[in-house]
Write a structure and sequence with these properties.
single chain; 490 residues; alpha+beta; Serine Threonine Protein Phosphatase 5, Tetratricopeptide repeat; Nuclear Transport Factor 2, Chain: A; 2 domains; eight-stranded mixed β-sheet; 10 strands; 38% helix
Length: 490
């Protein structure tokens, strides 16, 4: 039970295009929602793009980095200088940064990040996130570049994506010398990001004591901002030495923030018994593990009922869209035929077999078609090609599953089979000796002109789960797969 409660409290903040900054935050009592987020952010152990464009940037790469050279002509435009300076800073090329600043590059230039579509957005263009050069330099840990930018007038506290400052990034990446330099240049130790966090929250690693002492000496509040306190974070993540340091420096042991656990409760839900004992010895209070489990179960039941009611309401509202159409059959057929051509080692786990099974009902539900899941599996250009309207249509059609028993393929190697969830490799191999695997699809999502479609599907059999995405275009009235992407999960 303790393990299940621990998982229920674990969640990842969705800081789009900034995976390295995800921070565990067990909000309470809505930790059941966190469990959903965990299921939607499975670790991708292997993913491969097949077909379509040959190469995509990583999903958090920036559009501005298409320029691959640091050197620029003497009469370069401001945009050329900006792009070149971003590249030089990220490469830690001190000489190039100095030269570009001398040519007139702005020390407060910002790197523009891609904003991936989401179904909860409207169709208007979304404002892109931006990162200041100083934040990029702090992340790289190149103090000479940081000094050059500051000397040229870079804003020491310039906020970037989600309000993260250069100081927060230097603390997070454990660059103590840069932290000291930024503080000496006037960086505010208690400036908050969009989540209410201050730089103290991101202390970790071997230099914890020195980093903590440096920030406290600069006037940092030991209890952080308006969100998690450093003591909560350390107790939850099992950082015993950090807990001892914070208690020694006067951190409030019983501080309570709205919808958050106390430090003692953080230790309990993670099974960090030694830290729980330390906190109790220092006067730490909170609910017992049994009380927390009971409240979690009650809240989970409530949220499950709400989710079920919402799904039913949405399914009723969009019931006319939850019908297998002739166009759907064409898209499904085209996708399945295309999947038959994919090499075994890029697709499923059973090799040298000719057939493919389609599960006789759609997947239904929002988990694998949630934006966080789709965007985490795809490269940036792929994710950008699935528009807001396509994502919305995909979700509207799949609140509940529907039968596919009437689907018939004209290909002799594609068969409709009963729901295969729960198959293990050995059982499936024995029951279906000619099949490479099975596919469980969601109904396709279409663009408004029905010239583009996206099909999401689960792949089995698999002990840990696998998924795929196919993007199709209609040319001359015929559907074709433009690109496809597979993800095998840990």
């Amino acid at each position: 039970m303790k393990r299940s409660l621990q998982r229920a409290f674990e969640g990842k903040l969705n800081r789009r295009n900034f995976p390295s900054r995800s921070l565990t935050r067990p909000d309470f009592p809505r930790f059941s929602l966190c469990l959903f987020l965990i299921s939607s952010l499975l670790l991708v152990s292997r993913s491969g793009a097949v077909g379509g464009e040959a190469s995509y940037p990583k999903r958090w790469e920036v559009a501005s980095m298409q320029d691959q050279t640091v050197g620029v002509p003497s009469q370069a435009s401001k945009e050329e200088l900006r792009l070149a300076t971003i590249k030089a800073v990220k490469q830690g090329d001190v000489a190039a940064v100095r030269r570009l600043l001398g040519q007139g590059a702005g020390p407060n230039a910002r790197e523009v990040l891609l904003v991936l579509p989401r179904a909860d957005q409207d169709s208007r263009p979304q404002k892109a996130s931006e990162e200041p050069l100083l934040t990029l330099a702090a992340r790289q840990g190149n103090i000479e570049v940081v000094k050059l930018l500051l000397a040229s007038g870079a804003r020491v506290d310039a906020p970037g994506e989600a309000g993260f400052t250069p100081l927060m990034e230097a603390v997070r990446t454990r660059h103590l010398a840069i932290v000291t330099l930024l503080l000496n240049q006037g960086a505010k130790p208690d400036q908050r990001n969009d989540f209410g966090d201050t730089a103290l929250l991101f202390i970790e690693g071997k230099e914890q004591e020195a980093m903590l002492q440096t920030l406290l000496k600069a006037g940092a509040d030991i209890d952080g901002g308006t969100g998690w306190t450093p003591l909560m974070h350390a107790a939850y993540n099992g950082e015993e030495n950090m807990v001892k340091l914070l208690l020694k420096k006067g951190a409030q042991v019983n501080i309570k923030r709205q919808n958050l656990l106390t430090p003692l409760e953080c230790a309990l839900v993670q099974g960090n018994d030694t830290i729980a004992a330390l906190l109790k010895a220092s006067g730490g209070k909170g609910r017992t593990l049994k009380q927390l489990e009971a409240e979690e179960a009650q809240e989970s039941k409530k949220l499950a009922a709400e989710e079920k009611a919402n799904q039913r309401a949405a399914a009723l509202k969009y019931r006319k869209e939850r019908i297998l159409t002739g166009e759907d059959k064409q898209v499904i057929e085209t996708t399945l035929r295309d999947l038959l051509t994919v090499p075994d080692d890029q697709f499923v786990f059973l090799r040298d077999r000719p057939d493919l099974l389609l599960v006789d009902q759609t997947a239904g539900g929002s988990g694998m078609i949630a934006d966080t899941q789709i965007n985490s599996e795809l490269h940036a250009e792929q994710a950008m090609s699935i528009t807001v309207e396509m994502r919305q249509h995909l979700q509207h059609r799949n609140y509940l599953s529907i039968s596919l028993k009437d689907f018939r393929s004209s290909n002799a190697h594609i068969h409709v089979s009963k729901n295969g969830e729960g198959y293990d490799l050995r059982a499936f191999s024995k029951q279906h000796p000619t099949a490479r695997g099975y596919i469980m699809i969601y109904l396709p999502g279409y663009s408004s002109n029905h010239e583009q479609a996206v099909l999401r599907f689960g792949i089995g059999p698999s002990d840990h789960g696998a998924a795929g995405t196919c993007f199709l275009v209609k040319e001359g009235g015929v559907w074709h797969v433009k690109w496809k992407q597979f993800s095998h999960f840990l």
